Structures are given as C-alpha cells and as structure tokens.
TrEMBL record, chain A:
Domain annotation UspA: ranges: 2-122
InterPro entries named among the record's database cross-references: Rossmann-like_a/b/a_fold (IPR014729), UspA (IPR006016)
Source organism per UniProt: Haloferax larsenii
Protein known as: Universal stress protein
Pfam families: Usp (PF00582)
Superkingdom in the source lineage: Archaea
Automatic annotation (TrEMBL), chain B:
PANTHER family: L-AMINO ACID N-ACETYLTRANSFERASE, PUTATIVE-RELATED
Provenance organism: Haloferax larsenii
Protein name from the UniProt record: GNAT family N-acetyltransferase
Pfam families according to UniProt: Acetyltransf_1
Region of interest called Disordered, as start-end residue ranges on this chain: 1-27
N-acetyltransferase domain sequence ranges: 29-176
Matching InterPro entries: Acyl_CoA_acyltransferase (IPR016181), GNAT_dom (IPR000182), MshD_Acetyltransferase (IPR050276)
Source organism phylogeny: Archaea, Methanobacteriati, Methanobacteriota, Stenosarchaea group, Halobacteria
Amino acid sequence: MKVLLGIGGSDDSIRALEKTAERAADTGDDLTVAIVENPSVEHSREDIEQKVTTVLDEFNLDAPIQHLEGDPGSALVDKAENEGFDQLVLGGGQTSPMGKIQVGSIAEFVLLNSHVTVTLVR
Amino acid sequence: MNTRTYSDAVADPYEAPPLSFTDREERTIEVRPYEGDEAEFEALVEMYDSFDPSDRAQGIPPGREDRIRDWLDNILDDECLNAIAWHGDEVAGHATLVPDGDAYELAIFVHQEYQRAGIGTRLIKALLGYGRESGVEKVWLTVERWNRAAVGLYKTVGFETSDAESFELEMTIRLNPSDE
C-alpha cells in the first residue's frame, strides 16, 4: 500500500510518524513522508527532518522525505490525490489539560476534503 | 502562545457551594466541593462507569474503568477545582476547572438519569461561584457545535464564543478582574 504521512512537528504528528514507520516496517508499505508548515509548532523544518530521519533509520526504512510548501492541508490532499496514494496518515490531535481530544486544523481540512482514505493515529 | 479572547466584563457572581436545591423531578440535590476522600472518588468512578457513551464529548469521560480512574486522578488533583452534585450518596453530576497556564479549562457532566432536571445549570453556576471565590480569573471550554443544549447552557451563565473556526466551538468567561 502506498502511504503518505503528513508531519508538521506537533507531538501527535511525531507519534503518527513512529507508529506509521513501525507499521511500514512490518507490512512493507510504500511510505513517503511529507513535511508541512504547522503554524502552531515552533520546531524548524530542519529539526523535524532530523527527527524523521532518525525514526526511519530506527526501522531501517528507505522512505523519501519531501517538503511541501503553502497551505499544509491542501498541499497534502493534492499530493495524495495526484500521486496515487492509498492512504493519508496524520496525527490524531492533541489533548487539552482536561483530557479532551482536539483535532488540529490540518487534520480538520484533510478529513473534510480528501478523497483518499485518511487515518488519524491515536 | 494561546491567544484566546476574554470579555473585560466580569460575569455574574454566582453562589459558591455548598448549596442545595430541589430539581424538576422533586429530588433534593446538594452541590459540594470535592474534598478528596476515597468515598467521593469511588462515587465519581461509579457515575462515570455507567455514563451513557453517547454523552461523551471529545473523548471524555473515557470508556473503561482503569482509564476513568487515570483521568479522574488527573482532574481531581489539588490544583483543580471540582464541584459535585449529590443525590444522597449518588453522584448526579460533576463539574471541574483544570488549570491551563493563566486560565482554567471547564467541563461538566450530568449523568443521563439526572439530565433535563435543571441540575446542569445549578451545578455550573456553583462551580463558577467556587472559581470566583478561589480567585480564578479566566475560564475557557470547548463544546461540539451540534450540542445545542450545552452551548445554550454556557451562554445562559455568561460564556461568549471566542473561536468558531474549528470543529468545536471555543467559549470563554471572566470571573474576576484582571490583576495586571
């Protein structure tokens, strides 16, 4: 299966990266990692790429890492639809101090707009 | 980092618990602050363990007893303010303020056997009274926008919408003047 993981550097997106990499190592999924700009995240793209490389190495995956510019949600949906991906994977949201799940703005856009199957990792 | 907007005006000064009232089903309901004893904790676990899953909001209360206990440990911490609506020894509802930087996040749950009896309104007012009395300045919450009953309740007690752009509505209220 051809899987596109979108990552903007939030904690939940890092968790999604780890779980997706683990799964790809098990199943042989054809994984691509797309780094996007998440305005609510402070990490630089270089930091995120470094993290992605570390996790991919840990699972011996040779997955391409790409940087997407512009609005993150629409860039991910465009890429997933135009390049024949079977699944678009994102972090499943942060939790508030109360413990409420809060879906991020990128996931909101993707869920409502993507014609490709979306997975939110919890 | 968060830029929530709060009214400059302070909300009505609601009465702080303990207090009691008769609900629309003629039940005597007492609202008391959570004191931290084991019987209270177990009564809360019991309420959430039988909580209607369709009344869950954004993943809480969680759906398994061990997760309920972990979640309660977190929100019944000394830093949090909790008010419980009691019908005898049974918990009818629970409302909580959990610290979040310079503000508090609010949530309220009324067990399905006690809904539509006016308990939610009295309980949230009591919690806001408790918060005001304890010096809490700012309170925020999120609510699923289709949940009209809840949105109506929050508006009635003085919450204003601060963010309508996401899946959930975000609402805020000010309980004490800013000390800046």
